[in-house]
Amino acid sequence: MHLFVSTHLNVSWSHANKPQLLISHMADASTPSQSGLNTQSTKKNVRGCTRMKKLELLSARGERKSIDFNSDGRPIGKNAHDFKYHVASLAREKISILIDEWDKVGSEDRNEIWTGLKQVWDIPKNAAADKKTMIYAGERWKAFKNSLTSRYIDEKGNKFGKSAADDYSYIGKETWNDFVKSREDPAFLEKRKKGQVAQSYNKYPHRLSQGGYALLEKDMMADKLKKRKEAAGGAEVPPPSPPQRHEKWKQARLKPSGEYTSEATRLIAENIDALVSEGTFVPQGRHDILTEATGRGEHPGRVRGVGGGVGIREYFRSHSCKYSGTPPVMNKEQIEAIKAELTKDITAQVMRDISSLPAFSEKYTNNPVCSPNTTLQYESTKASCLELPHMSDDDPEDIPEECELYIEGSNHVVAYANVYRLGPNIHNQVLNNDMVRVAVTKVIYANAKLPVPTDEVTTVGDAPNTFIQWPKRLLQLISNKHVRSKKYDAPPKKSEPICQKLGVKAMYIDQNLKFNVEFGGTNAFIELPREDIVDLCMGTKELGISILQVWLIYLHRRCMELGNNNVYGFIDPQFTHSQNERGSVQSYIQKKMCDDKKECYIAPYLNNHHWQLLIINPTKLEVVFLCSLGKKPDKKICDIVETALGAYNKLQRARKQKKVEWFFPTSQKQQASYECGYYIMIHMLNIISATIVCSWTQIFRDSKPFQKDEVKNVQERCGNMILEHIEVSADNDMN
Predict the structure, then answer these.
(1) Whole-model pTM above 0.70?
(2) Cα–Cα distance between 68 and 82 in angstroms, integer?
(3) Which of 174, 181, 288, 323 would give a disulfide with 283, using CB separation of 3.0 to 4.6 Å?
(4) Fold of 504-732
């Protein structure tokens, strides 16, 4: 039976010039370094060094242990625990306890920590990871100094009166004596007293272990995933969304008995539950549910319910990728304001597009370009003012005619109404020549915005029982509907750009669109948020996971049309992005290959806000990797894919197990930061259209950027598919 309290790793060289990895056991989970400030002395009964054979063998062979980090720079995976212990032990050994604060630690001492880590660990280049690692080292070094003070210097300590130099081989006696003197200094005692008083004001003590909120979040995610799988009968399910910080704050203060750590904590927890159940609270920036429940804002330099090392600006920043973080919640007024602004932008773009057309320029040479707020006069495919019956002032009575009402950018009827002529004024306003007076008789889309709203009436649902203005070009008299095409021989209006039309449609979507995951062989649904649709339409934003999922549905249908559906399988990026745990990604890929039995698998991969593409051939054990920035794949995805392929081939009882071969052909380089998603969409479309399964390096050898029309092609193909889905859903709703 091995007792492991804490370990310190160090690499030394024997007389034979062979590296030996030494691990010294320590009585405390913390330990310091006193190089340059430490006077070593002969010690008795000091625990010697013990070798950790696995790490020693790796070091002897010149190999290092792998470690992965998430996008926030925190270590993840099976080796994360050992890595954090190593960071802590190096900080304790390499940094003197006589230094007052971590900020005063010099760069040379910090570099010693990095040197020790890189001798043992294969640390990827990651600025966020470098920063978080040093922050964690400082936290553990400070905790160790506090532990020494509490246990050896405080009268209530379990080792009061003893010397820490007898327990820690790297703390010299002189160093320890100087440390004791510094702790007995009146200035330090006053500072410590203030800290203790401040701690006594903590009304909400937590029960977190050394793993902190990171470990708590991991446990909560595992519990959520377990419940999902149980509800799905053991079937593969997508990973759950991370818990929100008010959920973690509550869980961190909940005892196993179900009680909270204090009465004040219980009251805050009840406030949180009430806000969640009501569902009316709207977070505004940093003012979220936890802030509202506690009645206190965030303290500068930290964020409650998240853990150390995460600042306010870092946590509350806007997230560009759609697979992680708490989605923003907006009230009705904010949504309407966004609708109006986006509609204005899209309308302006449509005006610019139309004005640039040769036919438009020739016909309206002397006319100014319309502004977004100007009503564009054009011959409509619906009823126009030419089709309205003439009504003279001598008409003895107004006989209403039934009509269909439409709104800009929609081919669907939003309401039925009667057209009236009761004078030139309506609600004390002069009725313009291009407008008519109508009274809504039947509402179809209650949330549709009125073309000419008033203070009291803004939507179609508000319109019954009152007169409203409606543009003549946006209504169709039912009596003329069957002869509309014969009234005049007008040239067809140029079709509205797909993404412009979809952008307008998206403004009236009040819930996520649902698509059946056709390429996965399951009944699961993809939920497409309106925000992702707008990003696609704008064409200048990074694409979210849901857009790539919809694109895979399109490619699956395209394969069915081309007759190569037996060749290509598609890996859902929701299951494989870099934020997911290694084990769940590996099992998903392996299961897909076993279930689908395709020749090639196309796998969009979201790696820290950047889209990359993998094409996997399980039979040949080949993987093709395409990146529009020319980067190589990270070690994590390489290990996952290779392990999944190895396990798959074992299940297929392959006679020969060969090494996985990776291909890195030259591919087009993106110019704008948001284009990576579009580039892999183009690659995927080209691959299935030409049924490419081999000769990758010969086919992909052009580094020139894709043309704008190539990017627009996939953008409009995807937009058209979404648009058709919206229109079919609308037709079904009306039926």
Answers:
(1) no
(2) 12
(3) 288
(4) Adenoviral Proteinase; Chain (3.40.395)
